[in-house]
Amino acid sequence: MEEKSKKDHRALLNQGEENELEVFGYRTQNLRRALCLITTMLTCGVLLLVFYWKPQWRVWANCNPCPLQEADTVLLRTTDEFQRYTRKKVICLYLATLKFPISKNPEEPLVADRHSVINHAVLKPELKLRYIQVRKIRLLEDSNSCYDIHHTFGLGLTSEEQEVRRLVCGPNAIEVEIQPIWKLLIKQVLNPFYIFQLFSVCLWFSEDYKEYAFAIIIMSITSIALTVYDLREQSVKLHHLVESHNSITVSVCGRRGKSHYFRSVCCS
After folding, report:
1. Binning pLDDT at 50, 70 and 90, where does residue 54 land?
2. Residue ranges of the Cation-transporting P-type ATPase N-terminal domain (predicted)?
């Protein structure tokens, strides 16, 4: 039983591929969360800073391991030599918010393709979908061959199926967000190097070496400003590059032979 629980707690994503990831399921415990909150206040926010640098410590401190089906938080770990951790919250999506009625019968598929991941992922009768956002681009299931696509979707999708896929899969667009300056600034300031520089400044001031302290302050501010400016420029350039290459006109043939034209524009 314990071995099965450990197996349900862990899964492997994109097995054998370059972006292979291990995923671990955790459930937040209120008592652990309260203790972490008290410790954060007692340490004047130092614990929160440590959790920012080490997201896996935050999960281990606030949550208990559990099967992935019951998790509200997951840890992603790369399988390379670095084994970097990323924390993700499980998001619940409810198909009941759609404007048309959906069958709650588990035997009836939501979309025409019975092998689609949508039919297996949506929980009935709650009509709830649990997912995490790992990549900004969501890909078509590679289990579909060209024949399958033409045979299943050759006549087009019904308006109901379009709405279901639009809600579950999101927009079919490459969206590159321009990072706000304040967010870039916070990320740079919370870098361990600049936190160390802050302690160095405090030390030099306590020893009355004001010249060294002011020199560190000037160099740190200059370095942060240049880095933020460079990152902001790269973000703006990448956004404009994607926007200029993501504006196309798509012709869609409907079930009754009618053609509809849509313009795909990258969101700003």
Report:
1. very high
2. 149-209
